[in-house]
Amino acid sequence: MAPEMELSTHAQTALEQIEKCTSCGLCKDVCPVFALTFREAESPRGKINLLRAVLDAKLESAPETADVFNRCLLCYACQDACPAGVSTEKIWISGRQTIADEAGIPLLKSLFLKQFLTNSSLWKTALKVGAKLPGGDTTIKLKGMRFPRPSQNRLDRILPEVLEPRGKQVGRIAFFPGCMLTEVFPHIGLKAAEILAHLGYEVITPQDRVCCGAPAFNNGDMDTGRKLAQKNLEVYSHMEVDAVISPDATCGGAFRHEYDILFPPGSIGHSEHREFRKKVKDFGEFLLQVFSKRSDVGFKPVENVVSVHDSCHLNHLQHKADVPRKLLSYIPELKQVESPRNELCCGFGGSYSVIFPSESKAIARRKLDFMQSSGGKTFVVGSPGCLWNLRTEAAELALDVSVVHYLELVWYSLIGAAKQTKSPVSKESDSVAD
Ligand code: SF4
Ligand code: SF4
């Protein structure tokens, strides 16, 4: 950064947090990237010192700086571990933008964020092409990168915009499935809506919703992130609903946390976001509220031994790690066992798994080792990103386990068992007719 340059607002945001850091290094103990590489530069403290040097104009922002800064899963374990109350969330997001301001965003990434994410017809075309690219059942491999394979059917083809409640209507829900449940796991997105309808809610899934913006603002493109967030506020904030619900902990976390960074007091969208935020709930958090008040839900037994992974954005971002366990405790005959280091990230990290596939896989394997030691036969996650990474890795290792989103087990107990569906696991091969 040039010495004479004034700090931008986001650079100041990062600096305020950096100044709280005492360099104690306690955050290194919980960082899954540091546990893999043992390189100080890739630890949270190392990245904070790197950004400090950039902001102090001791170091130029360059693509190499961005590369080090990108070696982070945005799991926020470091934030929860920090005794000085440093918001690493603010440092990573504002820092990535500060570095992108000077070093730029690589062309392909920028094209994806600025053109594809914001243009629904380009997005749909790209996904159709992507679904046919080489790779594995769940993965596309391209030029050393790996991506989740889009489904042949997107959620909006199998879920109507308005899903009527079963029986007497008790309320109305705005559903935000997120991109992973829309494009990669539409069967699970459908199950989420079916659970709500089964409980008597009318479920509205607006077809003009867009990505929550996390891939953009997490990669230093705040303008695209804000544009996407504004569109979602336009679509959702004026809806007359009991709650806006997402089963994707990353999207829910973005609505509750990162949108605060996008829409500070006085900015356009601030008041809409405040209204919207009041209605946002994690899918499981909402179900727990319903289950705690009703005795007519009718859970069927599910004989299984499950181990719950604390999905980072449910745990470290929304602080709702107990939600899946409490939900599953309603299901008769379902036994829960704990695995060591439940809080460890699965290695997904959005673009981290795309840019650093071997590191992402190695972190997933370590996680699966811990989970296997619990004796569980089914591993349960709270976010579709974890689902993809752990399910893909478990399949590659031919492990005799299933990896499911907690909502698949709830669906199975409430709806699937009654329909005599064989397994709670949703597979793309449970194909839906075109
Ligand atoms: S734990 Fe907090 S204060 Fe200590 S090095 Fe990490 S960020 Fe800085
Ligand atoms: S967010 Fe996670 S991966 Fe990134 S520095 Fe913190 S602990 Fe490490």
Automatic annotation (TrEMBL):
Gene3D superfamilies: Alpha-helical ferredoxin
MF terms (GO), sorted A to Z: 4 iron, 4 sulfur cluster binding; glycolate dehydrogenase activity; metal ion binding
Enzyme class: oxidoreductase
Chain segments annotated as coiled-coil in the UniProt record: none
Cofactor: [4Fe-4S] cluster
Domain 4Fe-4S ferredoxin-type: 11-41, 61-92
InterPro entries from the UniProt entry: 4Fe4S_Fe-S-bd, 4Fe4S_Fe_S_CS, Cys_rich_dom, Glc_ox_4Fe-4S, Helical_ferredxn
Top-level taxon of origin: Bacteria
Record-listed E.C. numbers: 1.1.99.14
Function, in words: Component of a complex that catalyzes the oxidation of glycolate to glyoxylate.
The name this protein goes by in its record: Glycolate oxidase iron-sulfur subunit
